[in-house]
Specification:
about 5% strand, single chain, two-stranded antiparallel sheet, 3 helices, mainly alpha, about 220 residues
Length: about 220
């Protein structure tokens, strides 16, 4: 599928055939993109509903974790709690996989199952700190799921924008240009055919007069 912008196409039958074929391809591509856009819109609508559900599911365990942390903060004090926090690993390992949705790569996240020893002793701490750890373990999968869905939304939205740009280019630039060139070539060929017909009639009259003169002579 190709088109030359800024100049008229060559007024030949071969060029007319080529452009008509390109127009058919452009129409097919436009329909494919239109279907893809509709599927993307439906999937985005589903993901938006899913992210609301995921955020709601994340809310309670995360709220419980912060409540337990606040109670630990009150009982242990800021200095002791910050000292314990310094011994806690700052990173959490997760398995990252990729699934493809409508030609878009979407990462999926899953926390690696591994047992970690507590970095603090039981004697000098509060059970609220243990509760905070457990509540956060419960909350983390929900947090990852919400992050996964929101990332999918951003990626699919970018693909939707790209699809719409291609559709606009076809709908408002490429396809109209094909129609304009087809009209121009068809008009030129018709005009040339009329000129050829007129020329042939003129030649025929000359030949008839010539033959008539020969007969009379």
């Amino acid at each position: 599928m190709s088109v030359s912008f800024g100049r008229k196409a060559l007024p030949t039958k071969l060029e007319l055939i080529r452009i008509k074929r390109s127009l058919k391809v452009a129409d097919v591509v436009h329909k494919i993109l239109e279907d893809k856009r509709e599927i993307l819109l439906r999937r985005l609508d589903e993901l938006i509903r899913e992210t609301i559900t995921a955020r709601d599911a994340m809310g309670e365990p995360l709220s419980n974790a912060y409540r337990a942390l606040f109670d630990a903060y009150l009982k242990l004090g800021p200095m002791e709690l910050e000292s314990i926090a310094l011994t806690t690993p700052v990173q959490l390992e997760a398995d990252v996989d990729v699934k493809v949705v409508l030609d878009v790569e979407v990462p999926t996240l899953k926390i690696k199952e591994e047992k970690r020893r507590l970095t603090y002793g039981f004697m000098d701490t509060s059970f609220n700190l243990d509760e905070t750890t457990e509540m956060m373990k419960i909350a983390l999968p929900y947090i990852l799921r919400a992050a996964e869905i929101e990332n999918s939304i951003f990626r699919l939205a970018a693909e939707l924008e790209k699809t719409q740009r291609l559709m606009n280019a076809l709908e408002y630039l490429i396809i109209p240009s094909y129609h304009e060139n087809i009209k121009f070539i068809s008009s030129s060929l018709d005009e040339r055919e009329r000129e050829d017909f007129t020329r042939l009639k003129h030649v025929k009259r000359i030949l008839e007069r010539s033959r008539s003169g020969e007969v009379n002579g």
